[in-house]
Write a structure and sequence with these properties.
The chain has one domain: Alpha-Beta Complex (Amidase signature (AS) enzymes). The protein contains nine helices and seven strands; from the N terminus they run ββαβαβαααααβαββα. The radius of gyration is 21 Å and the shape is globular.
Length: 317
C-alpha cells in the first residue's frame, strides 16, 4: 500500500514478544524497507529464537544469519512460478501492471504457469474471523494486564472508556469489532480450537496442493487492489482483492515488491512459498526488482501529500 518492500516471514521466524497482535496464529512482525536488499539485511538482524515467544521454537534450523547472500539477479532462471490470476481483481489497470510483471519474470528466465489460481479462502473465511476475535481479546487482555501503568487493564475496560468518551474517540465510527471480540470465550474452548485448526489445515492444503500440482517454486499475483479511500459516511469499502490472507492464515512466507502505480497509488507484486522459503523468495524478489528497475518502468518515489487522487497528473502508469 505504501510502495515499499515487505516481508511477512514464516510464523515463528521473528519474535512477537511485546507486540499486540490481532491474531497470534497468523500475525507476525516483518521487515519493511525501500528495497529488497534493505529488507533482507533487516530480516537477518531480527530473525531468531526468543524464550519469551514459544512460536520461535519452530524456527530452529531454519534461521539464516545473513539473508543478503540470497540477493541474486539471476535467480529467476529456471524458476517455475504459478500465477493466481483471480487475485488480480476487477481493475484492468492492475491486471495490465501484472501482465507487464509476468513479461519481466519470463524475460528473466522463469517458466510461468498461468493460471495457477489459488482457491479455497471462502472455505475458512468465517472461521478465520472467529479466530481473530478470540485471539485479539486474549492477547490484548494479557498485554494490558502486564502493563500496570496503563489507564485500562482489559478489553472490557477499553470498551467502557470508549463509550464514555465516544464524542472524542469515536466521532465517525463505532467499536463493533471490539464488542464482538468481548463476547468470545477463552482460548481453551472447543469452538476456538476447531476454528483455528480448520483455518490452518485448509489454508496450507490450498497452497501446498497448487504448488505440488504444477511443481512450483512460488506463487505470484497482485498484492492488492489500489489502497482503499477513507469514507467517513459509508465506511471503508471491502470489495478490494488482496493476497495477504492465504499466506497469513497458513503461516507461510510472503514478499511484496513494488510493481507500478495506478493513479499514483502503489501496486505490489506478491510472491508466496512454503514454510521457511524466505531465501528463495528473497532471491526471486530481488531479481524482479532489479529487472524492473533496469527496464525503466519503476523508480522510487516519495509521498506527494496530495489533497486528492483525482488529478490529471496521476494518470495510469
Amino acid at each position: 500500500m505504501n510502495g515499499i518492500v515487505g516481508i511477512k516471514p514464516t510464523l515463528g521466524l521473528i519474535s512477537c514478544s511485546g507486540l499486540i497482535l490481532i491474531g497470534h496464529s497468523q500475525d507476525t512482525a516483518g521487515p519493511m524497507a525501500r528495497t529488497v536488499a534493505d529488507a533482507a539485511l533487516l530480516l537477518g538482524c531480527i530473525a531468531g529464537i526468543d524464550q519469551e515467544d514459544p512460536a520461535t521454537d519452530a524456527a530452529t534450523g531454519h534461521i539464516q544469519q545473513d539473508y543478503t547472500c540470497f540477493l541474486d539477479k539471476d535467480a529467476l532462471k529456471g524458476a517455475r512460478l504459478g500465477v493466481s490470476r483471480r487475485h488480480f481483481g476487477s481493475d484492468w489497470r492492475v491486471a495490465a501492471l501484472m501482465q507487464k510483471a509476468i513479461t519481466i519474470l519470463q524475460a528473466c528466465g522463469a517458466t510461468i504457469v498461468d493460471p495457477a489460481d489459488l482457491h479455497g479462502e471462502a472455505a475458512y473465511e468465517g472461521a478465520e474471523m472467529q479466530v481473530l476475535l478470540y485471539e485479539f481479546k486474549a492477547d490484548l487482555n494479557a498485554y494490558l494486564a502486564a502493563h500496570t501503568g496503563a489507564p485500562v487493564h482489559s478489553l472490557e475496560e477499553l470498551i467502557t472508556f470508549n463509550e464514555a468518551h465516544k464524542k472524542e474517540v469515536m466521532p465517525v465510527s463505532g467499536q463493533e469489532i471490539f464488542l464482538m471480540a468481548q463476547r468470545k470465550g477463552s482460548l481453551d474452548g472447543k469452538q476456538y480450537q476447531r476454528a483455528r485448526d480448520k483455518c490452518r489445515k485448509l489454508s496450507r492444503e490450498g497452497i501446498d496442493s497448487i504448488m505440488r500440482k504444477h511443481k512450483l517454486d512460488a506463487l505470484v499475483t497482485a498484492s492488492s487492489m489500489p489502497a482503499m479511500l477513507i469514507d467517513p459516511v459509508r465506511g471503508d469499502p471491502h470489495q478490494a482483492m488482496a493476497f495477504s490472507s492465504p499466506a497469513a492464515v497458513s503461516g507461510y512466507p510472503h514478499i511484496t515488491v513494488p510493481a507500478g502505480r495506478v493513479k499514483g497509488l502503489p501496486i505490489g507484486l506478491s510472491m508466496v512459498g512454503p514454510a521457511w522459503s524466505e531465501p528463495r523468495l528473497i532471491s526471486f524478489a530481488y531479481a524482479f526488482e532489479q529487472a524492473l528497475s533496469a527496464s525503466g518502468q519503476s523508480a522510487p518515489r516519495g509521498p506527494a501529500f496530495l489533497q486528492t487522487v483525482d488529478s490529471g497528473a496521476l494518470d495510469y502508469e
